[in-house]
Design goal:
This protein is mostly helical and 625 residues long. The chain has 14 helices and 5 strands. It has helices at 5-8, 13-55, 68-160, 165-259, 263-274, 297-313, 324-330, 363-372, 375-387, 400-437, 448-495, 502-510, 528-537, 613-624, and strands at 554-558, 577-582, 589-594, 598-603, 607-611. Strand 3 and strand 4 (598-603) form a beta hairpin. It starts with a helix and ends with a helix.
Length: 625
């Protein structure tokens, strides 16, 4: 079957015009579809990028790099961001390669279609005018023929009735009229024949030459439009397929990130992060309250009544609230000792080799630094104000295990800096050698200041490295001592159980001072001094027993062992939990209580205080008053 519109659709000009108009409308509709799809892809990419940015950590936390589930989620967010980039690229390809090209082609197609159908209309008008001329000559010929025939009939009838001279003259006139009509009919016949031939020629040319050419052009235009739609659809699928490998790689990376999560490793990492290195607390010692029963009868008859009354009211002199004078008298009159850095138990003073503890910076100094420094230093000052100052340089404020890890991290960082400085020094030395061999390349003396600066920096770093290595060795030795004590203490506990009885009393009475250590390796002071202090306190007047003891405003944990040798102080062992009675008033001492019976002052730097929420407001209001 022939597919030529010129021969098969020679009489379907109007239908072809409608069909081609509908084809252009379809092309515009498809262009709009691709444009809206590109907008959707672009909006999707923006939303995906916004989602990834929203859930990406604003500030790099140290915890984010420790756990596999955090790392997997971060990798997923990065791949999601990569997916948004691919979606943006797809939207850009759809917009530039399809939408813009189809819009331009649609305008060209409309212009071409208009030209072709204008040519078709002109050819149609020409054949219609030729047909009208043929019809006009035909009607004129028909009219002239009828008039000539009627004139001939009149002339013949007059010839039959010709009798007189007047009638002969009418006959002659009728013959002349019939002859003229006959000549006019002949002339009309010639015109009709000419018009007929011309129309046939025009019609043949119209349906066999003009219409096939014009319709063929319209057919070619329609086929090019369909091919362009096909090409646009193919480009759309190709643009989608181009991003599929990257999208597939992103999805594979997400799968690998999910499979890389290791719960066991994360739980071990929690142990590594939060392990303090402290030993668990040992067994609670049996406190012998029957020591006063071994005194003389006369002494016990006088003191037991007062002791019983004090136990009933749970008050202890001189640490009950009397007045400011008694508080000042009971408070230590000398400054507290600095916190120890030696791992030996029972140490009170610092070793000469250990650096002095770092105290908190004055708030006025921090404010001055804040106002006179740059933006970066200002942020550090604000952070220092927020956390109340930095800790000691040897990290002695941290638990043993965390201190060891912190020092190890610092040593690794210093080693990296030393390696960079050495590489820079070697590069400068090589450059100086080159300058000395070839003076035209540069002055070797110009490198000396830089070399001296690098050497000084390297010396400082090496000194810092040695200092941190000494602190690390100290922390390691302390951890090893604690581990050995824990193992020895564990064997003793498992082999022999202690119960409050006569055997326990004998063990407590017969212990030597060297053996008074808790299972965690900390030193425990003898209770004889405390009993002696209690016996001395019982000699005071009963009027002081009427007042209630100070309420507890929080708790504290001892960071180091302390021997209360001065009057008014309280001995404690490392890791012991005590109740806080009064905060540090600026003299470096904090008032604490043990078991609601023993109160005293301990150095503030030896403990870590945990105030109650209600007590914080009370203390702040009392300070304002």
């Amino acid at each position: 079957m022939s597919c030529n519109w010129g021969t098969e659709l020679w009489d379907q000009f109007d239908n072809l015009e409608k069909h081609t108009s509908w084809g252009i409308d379809f092309l515009e509709r498809y262009t709009k579809f691709v444009k809206e799809r590109a907008d959707i892809e672009l909006s999707y990419a923006k939303q995906i990028r916004s989602l990834s940015k929203k859930y990406h950590p604003k500030r790099s936390r140290e915890d984010e790099g420790r756990y596999t589930w955090c790392l997997a989620f971060a990798a997923t967010l990065r791949q999601l961001n990569e997916l948004s980039i691919q979606r943006e690229e797809l939207a850009e390809n759809l917009s530039t390669q399809i939408v813009c090209e189809l819009s331009r082609y649609t305008q060209e197609l409309k212009t071409e279609r208009k030209t072709h159908f204008q040519d078709g209309r002109r050819a149609q008008q020409h054949i219609e005018s030729s047909w009208k001329q043929l019809e006009s000559s035909k009607r004129r010929f028909e009219r002239d023929c009828k008039e000539a025939e009627r004139a001939q009939q009149i002339s013949d009838r007059i010839d039959l009735d010709n009798k007189t001279d007047g009638e002969k003259r009418c006959t002659l006139k009728a013959r002349q009229t019939a002859q003229q009509k006959k000549e006019a009919a002949e002339e009309a016949r010639k015109d009709y024949v000419t018009s007929l031939n011309q129309f046939n020629q025009d019609q043949h040319q119209h349906y066999h030459t003009l219409v096939p050419v014009i319709y063929q052009r319209i057919q070619d235009m329609e086929e090019r439009r369909i091919e362009r739609v096909c090409e646009a659809m193919r480009l759309s699928a190709e643009a989608e397929r181009k991003v599929l490998p990257v999208v597939s790689r992103c999805l594979d990376a997400m799968m690998n990130a999910a499979e890389s999560i290791q719960p066991r490793m994360d739980t071990r990492q929690v142990v590594e992060v939060y392990k303090s290195g402290f030993d668990p607390p040992g067994d609670v010692e049996f406190e012998d309250y029957s020591a006063s029963m071994r005194r003389s009868i006369s002494e016990s008859s006088y003191l037991d009544n007062r002791t019983e009354g004090r136990r009933h009211s749970r008050k202890l002199w001189p640490f009950i609230r009397k007045n400011k004078l008694l508080t000042l008298l009971s408070s230590p009159r000398q400054p507290p000792p600095p916190p120890p850095t030696s791992p030996l138990p029972g140490a009170v003073t610092d070793s000469p080799q250990s650096p002095p503890p770092t105290s908190r910076e004055p708030i006025t100094q921090r404010l001055n630094d804040l106002m006179t420094s740059g933006s970066r230093t200002r942020k550090q000052c604000l952070r220092s104000l927020k956390r109340g100052g930095s800790g000691p340089a040897d990290c002695s404020h941290l638990p043993p295990e965390q201190r060891r890890k912190k020092l190890q991290t610092r040593i690794n960082s210093i080693n990296q800096e030393i390696q960079r400085e050495r590489e820079q020094r070697d590069a400068l030395l090589k450059m100086r050698e080159v300058y000395e061999r070839s003076p035209q390349m540069g002055d070797a003396g110009s490198l000396e200041p830089r070399l001296e600066e690098v050497k000084q920096s390297l010396q400082k770093l090496e000194d810092e490295l040695r200092k941190n290595q000494a602190w690390l060795a100290e922390a390691d030795s302390r951890l090893s001592d604690h581990s050995s004590r824990r193992q020895s203490g564990g064997c003793g506990v498992n082999s022999q159980a202690t119960t409050p009885g006569s055997s326990s009393l004998k063990q407590l009475d017969n212990r030597s001072p060297a053996s008074r250590e808790s299972p965690d390796g900390s030193y425990t002071e003898d209770n004889s001094a405390e009993l002696h202090f209690k016996s001395r306190s019982s000699e005071f007047d009963d009027d002081f027993d009427d007042e209630e003891p100070l309420p507890s405003i929080g708790t504290c944990k001892s960071l180091y062992p302390f021997q209360g040798q001065n009057e008014g102080t309280l001995s404690m062992v490392e890791g012991e939990l005590l109740s806080v009675v009064e905060e540090d008033k600026g003299d470096g001492w904090t008032r604490v209580r043990r078991n609601l019976e023993e109160e005293g002052y301990v150095p503030t730097s030896y403990i870590k205080v945990f105030l109650d929420s209600s007590a914080k407001g009370f203390v702040q209001s009392s300070r304002l008053v």
